[in-house]
Amino acid sequence: MTVEDILKKLVAFPVLGGESNLAIIHWIKEYVESFGVEANLLYNDQKDKASLHCRIGPEMDDGVILSGHTDVVPVEGQEWNTGPFVLTDKGDGKLYGRGSCDMKGFIACCLAALPEMVKADLKRPIYFAFSYDEEIGCLAGPELARTFNTYYTETPVYAIIGEPSMMEPIVGQKGIYILETYVNGSAGHSSRIKQEVSAIHESMRLILWLENKMNQLISDQRLDDRFQPPHSTIHIGMVHGGIAPNVIADKAQFYWDLRTIPMDNVETIVSEFEAFCRKREEELQRAFPGFSIKTIENHPPVPHLDTKVEADVVDFIKKISGNSKLNTVAYASEVGQFANEGFQSVICGPGSIAQAHRPNEFIAKEQLEKGVAMLQKLIHELSK
Ligand SMILES: [Zn+2]
């Protein structure tokens, strides 16, 4: 099958983040096993989703992991000119469809290169690591990355995450944390604002604390020029609370995200915030004993990536991708999870992130060809 045939097949599985991916993962498993490679499935507790991992080549150290996710983001409310789950060639050099770029394109490249991988005389192995639920918080990544230290007796050295990067190596990613804060105050007539505790008023104070914290990090020169913007960001994206202008709100909540540069520690920022919350609780419980503030993680943290330019994987990826320009990104991916397991990790894959998550998502055919060409160079390097 050509890379386009495979991509067409993959796009036709409309697997959204959070949904069962068994149909697509079984199709991939069958495809991989038709080339004599044993593919392993790593199920979730409910057994309705699975990641796939396999080794191609010898049971030797220093192999390379190729990682991708099988889920995509929804198409609801988006204006598509073609069926989102039918890969469409409009003759303009692009292939349209949900996931064509983010990131079934890379998985298609891996599968298209598989026959050559199997035929080659590999001295070091290649692994596939295909996950689920990446788009709703990289939920399957940690266990899948860990498997490469527990299931296999040999130790891989590099991980290449094929998120769309126009085939340019990405060596840095901000850490991403999404949090929810719930404030519980006391209800009452608006005229009694000095006697009651408004959850909205208190939420505003907490939000301002967070904004000041971000500004303080900037003025403390906590900057990393590899990133745009070069500082950690704290952003409140949703606020709910209250029922009427003349009613004191007893409940309010806000959702926020923290995107941290590698030098900043998310635990420190969150624990300073928690300390401020406890101080406010102590003060306000004098007026209303039921007053409380609670912050929870919306989903597990996505760790940052901080691959140094001197790392061996940087030379390696420059060589096989043919691109020497190094970039950083602020979007979430599984790359930090592989780095946390000790594998030198980079992002490098076909297509542009600008096309991801949008209506009429596409991948340029030329990008797919470059993706396959990179994997052919990978085979060549590992056959030495
Ligand atoms: Zn992605």
Number of alpha- plus pi-helical segments: 9
Based on DSSP secondary structure assignment, what is the total number of beta strands? 18
User: What small ligands are held by the chains?
Assistant: zinc ion
**Overall geometric form:** elongated
Tell me the radius of gyration: 24 Å
**How helix-rich are the residues, as a percent range?**
25-40%
Total domains = 2
The CATH homologous superfamily of the largest domain is called Zn peptidases
Q: How far from one another are the termini?
A: 27 Å
Largest sheet: 6 strands, mixed
Summary?
This protein has 384 residues and is α+β, with helices and mostly antiparallel strands. It contains nine helices and 18 strands.
List the helices and strands and how they pair.
Layout: H1 3-11, H2 22-33, E1 39-43, E2 50-56, E3 64-69, E4 88-89, E5 94-96, H3 104-119, E6 126-131, H4 141-150, E7 158-161, E8 170-173, E9 175-184, E10 188-189, H5 199-219, E11 233-241, E12 247-248, E13 251-260, H6 266-284, E14 292-297, E15 305-306, H7 312-321, E16 327-329, H8 335-340, E17 344-347, E18 362-364, H9 365-382
Parallel strand pairs: 3-6, 3-7, 7-17, 8-16
Antiparallel strand pairs: 1-2, 2-6, 4-5, 5-18, 8-15, 9-13, 9-14, 10-12, 11-13
Helix pairs in contact: 1-3, 3-9, 5-6
Bound molecules: zinc ion (ZN).
Residues 69, 102-103, 134, 163 line the site of zinc ion.
